[in-house]
Each structure stands twice: as C-alpha cells, then as structure tokens.
Amino acid sequence: MIRFTDVSKRYPGGYEALKGVDFHLAPGEMAFLTGHSGAGKSSLLKLIALIERASSGQVLVGGQNLARVKSRHIPFHRRRIGIIFQDHRLLFDRTVFDNVALPLIISGHARREVERRVRAALDKVGLLDRARSFPVTLSGGEQQRVGIARAVINRPPLVLADEPTGNLDPELSREIMEIFRDFNRVGVSVLIASHDLDLIRQMPHRILRLDHGRLASDIGVTV
Ligand SMILES: Nc1ncnc2c1ncn2[C@@H]1O[C@H](COP(=O)(O)OP(=O)(O)OP(=O)(O)O)[C@@H](O)[C@H]1O
C-alpha cells in the first residue's frame, strides 16, 4: 500500500526532516509511527498525502509513484486517503451531519446516498444521535470522532492520522484507537503518527520509530 525507498525530505531553507527512509506498509496492515518531537512523523505523512514532495528517493502509494502525480491530480490522489489531524479542522458553522457529508457532496453523490452513508459513518463512531448538533457543543473526543467519520466517508483504502489522540485523556484515546482498529479489521490500511508510547505499546501493531529523520527501528506485530 505504501512503499518508501531511500526517501529524504529537505525543506526550503535546508533542514533535512527525513533521511534515507525505507519501509513498506502492506495492504490491510496497521502501524504506528512514533519518535520525538521534530523526528519527522508529520513530514512522512505529508509525503504520502502529497502535501509535500520527497526531495529524493521513491514514494509509492497503491502502486503509484507519487513523483509522477501532477499537481492538478493531487485532489484525486487525496480522495483515496482518509486524513485525520489532531486539530480535526471541522467547520464550526455547519452541523455534524454537514461536516461529515462534505466530501460526498464535493464528489457529487446523490442526496439519498449522502444521507445513508453519513448516518452509517456517524453510527460507526457512535455519534448518530448528534447528527444535528454543531461541533462546538461536542467534547474534544466527540469532535475528533466527527473528523474520523468525515475522513472515511469516501471509503478510502488508506487512513493516515497525525496525533489523533493528542488532546484526549487515556480512556478516550483508547476509544479512538479502537475505531481505527475496526477500520483495519475490514481491510483498511492504517498509519498513525503518535508520541503516546504508553497507548501504542498496548496495541498489537507494528511500530516504526523515527529519530532525527531516520527510521531508527521497525518493530513488528507482537501478538
Ligand atoms: N514546512 C517546513 N519548512 C521547514 N522546516 C520544516 C517544515 N515542516 C517541518 N519542518 C521541520 O522538519 C522537522 C520535522 O518536523 P515534523 O513536523 O515532521 O516532525 P514531527 O515528528 O511530526 O514532530 P511533532 O511530534 O512535534 O509534530 C522539524 O525540525 C521541523 O521544524
């Protein structure tokens, strides 16, 4: 699903955020990406989503060499990826339903299909009864779940999450991780950047650790 071959990322100004990174995430695999602040976790996810481009090396996503994706085709690339940020980026002047529906409306789905899929996605994250609420009336954990529902509404084969539990207490963090595991159980590939080692060590998934831009360790499935 994702293959990095000797990938480096140097930002304008010269800072090298990723250095010679090699790894492969198989279709249907779930893994965590960890490392100290500034280790390069977000940079790695940004390369996969084509928010940034690699300076050297090769990034393949779903068999496609991202160096060959033209700028005007980036939106199509992103539609195949569900991206979840720590600060969920919800629209606060729209209801929960409308926030989740947005990607479907943009891609031109019929109203009835939108209704059906939004309800299913909200049910999946346990928020069906909050569909008509505005995000400001929800807790941080609930807002994050709305962000997850929105990210997966297009049924992407790959989900990327950047510190999805950053502001949440341990109990809520575990609940969020369980939602990702549920997606993974139905075949979605999942890559989650997180510095919460206590939490991710409890999960039976591979852990990739970055250290100053290098892949320092890659610990496989333990269960
Ligand atoms: N657009 C940019 N321009 C220049 N340098 C950048 C840019 N984005 C990130 N960096 C630098 O690259 C390094 C890696 O940043 P990155 O955000 O990938 O790390 P991270 O592991 O996600 O950190 P954190 O856990 O703090 O979010 C940092 O030193 C950062 O300052």
Written account of the structure:
This is Cell division ATP-binding protein FtsE. It comes from Thiohalomonas denitrificans. It is a peripheral membrane protein. It is found in: Cell inner membrane; Cell membrane. GO terms for molecular function: ATP binding; ATP hydrolysis activity; transmembrane transporter activity. With 223 residues, the protein is of the alpha/beta class. The chain has one domain (2-219): Rossmann fold. The protein is 32% helix and 26% strand. The protein is built from 7 helices and 10 strands. It has a 6-stranded mixed sheet, with helices on both faces. Strand 7 (158-162), helix 6 and strand 8 form a beta-alpha-beta unit. The radius of gyration is 17 Å and the shape is globular. The two termini are 22 Å apart. 36% of the residues are buried. The mean pLDDT is 92. Adenosine-5'-triphosphate (ATP) binds next to helix 1.
